[in-house]
Write a structure and sequence with these properties.
homodimer; 235 residues; alpha/beta; 2 domains; six-stranded parallel beta sheet
Chain lengths: 235, 235
C-alpha cells in the first residue's frame, strides 16, 4: 500500500528549534541574575507561558510576551526599560536565526518528495513557520503547509477531510507523542516517532503508553525512507 | 452561474476590529502623555509596526511587541516596568474582548451558508482569528477557515488550487482593496468591496483605480445576498 500523504512536523523534527528557546531562556536568566536564581526564572517563565497559552497560543511572539511579563513580575517592576528592549532583541534573533536542519533531513525530504505528496503540519506563528520553511531550503519539496493552533485528533480529522485523504493512507512523522503521534494513531493513521534530545515539558507524554501496530519509533530521519519502503510492500 | 466558493475577510468585514487597535493606541497615548504628544506616539508606533512587520507579521501579539518597543524608545528608557505590564494588559483585553459583528453580518452569513460553501480568509494570529470566529457565533456557517500571513495574488492562487476552485467561480468579500479585492480581480475572480469607516494606513489603496466588470462595491453586508442572486441569474 502506498501512502497518499506523508506529513512532517517542523520544529525539532526537520530543524532544531527548542534549542533557540533554551538559549533565549539562558539569556533571560543572565539578565535577571541579580533578582532571582536561574531555576526560579525558568519556573516562573513556564508558569507564565502556561497561563498565557489560552490568550497567545504557541510561538516566539507568545514566548517573548511571556518573557517580558516574567521579567517585570519577578523583579517587582525594578527591571529597566532598556532591559525589556534586550528581551525584544532576543525575539528578533530567534526569528531570524539560521535554520539548522536535523541530520538526514535534507536528503530524506528530497528523496520522499520524488514519490510522495509531502505536507508540513506545525504549530506556532504562521509567518515564522513559513519563513523557517523557506530559509530551510526544503520549501519546494512540500506540496502543502498547514500551520495550526493545536494538534488534536480533531485537527488531523479536519485536515484529512479537507484534503480528502483516508486516515489509513496517511503517515505522520514527528517528535511529539502528544501532538504528532497519539492523535494520528487514534484516527487510524500511521505515525513515526523520532524523539528529540530536548523536549518542552508541556509536550511530555510517557512513550511507554504507546503500543500500537501503526506506530514506529526511529532514531533519526535517515531511517525513514527504508521504513516507508518496507511498509509499502508489506501492508 | 453559481459560485463554488464565497469567501469573506474577517476583521472589519464581519466584525469590528480596527476599533480595538484604535482604543489600545489611545490608551498608549494616555500612558505616554507625560513623555510625548499623541500624534508623536501614533507616528512612532506606526513606524515601529512597519519595521517589525517582516519579523512579526500581523496581529495583536505583533502590535503589542511594537507598542512595548515604542514605549521604551519614546521615553528613552524612562517608562516603568509596571507600565509595560499595563501594555500587556491592553493586549489581553483585545484578545478577549467581545466580538462585535458588523450590521447585517449574522443574517447574511446564515442565509448564504444555506446555498454556498463559505470560507473565511484572514490575516493575523491563527489562534486569535479562530477564537474570534468561534466567539462570533458564525463558526458553524463557515466550511473552511484559512489564516494567511499575507493576501497577495499568489496567496489566493495557492488557496484556490488547493481547493480546486476555478477563479471565475470564486467570490471574495472584504473591506481592503489591497488585500481582499485587487488580487482576486487580477486572478479572474469576483470581488465585493464593503468599505469600513476606519482603515489602517498600511491597507490604503485609492479606490478610484478600480474600474472592473467583476468588481462591486456595497454599503453594507445586507446588500450582499441580493447582489449574489442577481449575479447568479445574469452571468
Amino acid at each position: 500500500m502506498k501512502f497518499d500523504l506523508i506529513a512532517f512536523d517542523g520544529d525539532d523534527t526537520l530543524w532544531h528549534n527548542e534549542i533557540l528557546y533554551a538559549e533565549a531562556q539562558d539569556k533571560l536568566k543572565e539578565l535577571l541574575s541579580s533578582y532571582a536564581d536561574g531555576e526560579t526564572v525558568a519556573q516562573r517563565l513556564y508558569q507564565t507561558e502556561m497561563s498565557n497559552l489560552q490568550y497567545y497560543g504557541y510561538g516566539i511572539k507568545s514566548f517573548t510576551l511571556s518573557m517580558i511579563q516574567t521579567a517585570v513580575e519577578l523583579t517587582r517592576g525594578k527591571i529597566q526599560a532598556a532591559e525589556i528592549l534586550q528581551i525584544i532583541g532576543f525575539a528578533k534573533e530567534m526569528l531570524t536565526s539560521e535554520v539548522q536542519l536535523v541530520e538526514h533531513a535534507a536528503e530524506t525530504i528530497r528523496e520522499l518528495a520524488k514519490s510522495y505528496e509531502l505536507m508540513m503540519i506545525t504549530k506556532g506563528d504562521l509567518l515564522d513557520q513559513q519563513s523557517k520553511l523557506s530559509r530551510s531550503g526544503l520549501g519546494d519539496s512540500f506540496r502543502y503547509v498547514e500551520v495550526v493552533s493545536q494538534k488534536t485528533q480533531r485537527t488531523y480529522e479536519t485536515l484529512l477531510a479537507k484534503y480528502r485523504i483516508e486516515p489509513q493512507r496517511f503517515l505522520m512523522v514527528g517528535n511529539s507523542l502528544k501532538s504528532d503521534i497519539l492523535p494520528v494513531l487514534a484516527l487510524g493513521g500511521y505515525a513515526v516517532y523520532i524523539p528529540y534530545h530536548i523536549i518542552w515539558a508541556h509536550e511530555t507524554v510517557d512513550s511507554q503508553h504507546v503500543g500500537h501496530d501503526r506506530f514506529y519509533e526511529l532514531e533519526h530521519l535517515g531511517q525513514l525512507p527504508p521504513l516507508i519502503e518496507h511498509l509499502v510492500v508489506s501492508l
